[in-house]
Amino acid sequence: MSQSIKDPAELQRIYDHRFSAMLGYRTRVWEVLASAYFQRFVRPSDTVLDLGCGYGEFINHISCREKIGMDLNPRSPEFLASDVKFIAQDCSTRWALPDASLDVVFTSNFFEHLPDKKALRDTLVEARRCLKPGGRLIALGPNIKYVQGAYWDFWDHFLCLTEMSLGEALKNNGYRVTHSHARFLPYSMVAAPRYPIPFLRLYLAVPALWSLFGKQFLVVAERD
Known about the structure:
The protein is α/β, with parallel strands linked by helices. It has a domain of 155 residues. The protein contains eight helices and seven strands, in the order ααββαββαβααβααβ. Helix 2 packs parallel to helix 7. The longest helix has 14 residues. The model has no long low-confidence stretch (mean pLDDT 91).
């Protein structure tokens, strides 16, 4: 059985090496992604959990009533805004949250780090338990159909998914898929051009561009 990387010290080394030189740019990108696109899925009254929150690029910039970040990287709290509650735990075990306490679970480029489909299923089951009826799960990730061999350029990638396989997993575990895009964002900002931020706003506004550059899926589902 494959094993994900769960040692916090190793996670810290991986992400410090991978992202330290580009944190400022990533923050600016996610500020636009949150406000110009993902805010439409989040109400001001919502409680939102960012699963695999990393350095807080999403959760720091989304507007909502209560914010929670979950990760195993011990450096994550250093980068989270003061209004974000941090939970350090393995997401495939029972979450330290009550039933029906969340309105939205958001995750970006995280499911591919899980060791296998059982871990993903256990994570989806926990997310469903903690979501209110009608609550949303929003997931982005590399689409193996389009990324292909480049998927393995990252040491901590394990689980290969497409928008179809994730959608089926969601349907099998008590969700209803409401949005499914096979191509949404480009694959990665690591070792990639730093496009001007106004280009990102144009890209989000013109879905025809997604089919040209997008290699990550976007799936949005609601708890039944």
